[in-house]
Design a protein that fits this description.
119 residues; alpha+beta; globular; 5-stranded antiparallel β-sheet; 4 helices
Length: 119
């Protein structure tokens, strides 16, 4: 799956999220001209992630722990990549459907001395 397709799915689910990361995903999708899709049955799990139905497909997003608790399989390659990002201080948000993680989004905090425009 290409990055824009993953971002479109993630942003569609996150449209209703009150969390700043959800808002950042939606903002990134708008900047990349992604066409949001209709979501039903949105649910937020504070501090863990979000879920909803996208075109009848159950999508879940959040941390590896949250997906694991939800019985979602995460490929070792995705886990290793996300772990490397997290070791460097970044945040990883997994996106899954049909019981498998399909991709991971990376968020870098704005570091001292930089601006949002720099990142």
């Amino acid at each position: 799956m290409d990055g824009k397709a993953l971002l479109t799915i993630a942003a569609s689910i996150e449209t209703f999220s009150p969390h700043p990361i959800g808002k950042a995903i939606v903002d990134a999708a708008r900047k990349n001209h992604c066409k949001m899709r209709r979501v039903e049955h949105f649910r937020a799990f504070p501090g863990l992630g979000v879920a909803g139905l996208l075109d009848g497909l159950a999508v879940i997003m959040g941390s590896a722990n949250f997906l694991g608790e939800s019985r979602v399989q995460i490929d070792d390659r995705l886990l290793r990549g996300a772990g490397e990002w997290q070791d460097g201080g970044d945040l990883a948000v997994f996106c899954a459907w049909e019981g498998c993680a399909r991709g991971v989004l990376r968020f870098s905090p704005i570091r001292e001395g930089s601006s949002a425009a720099d990142d």
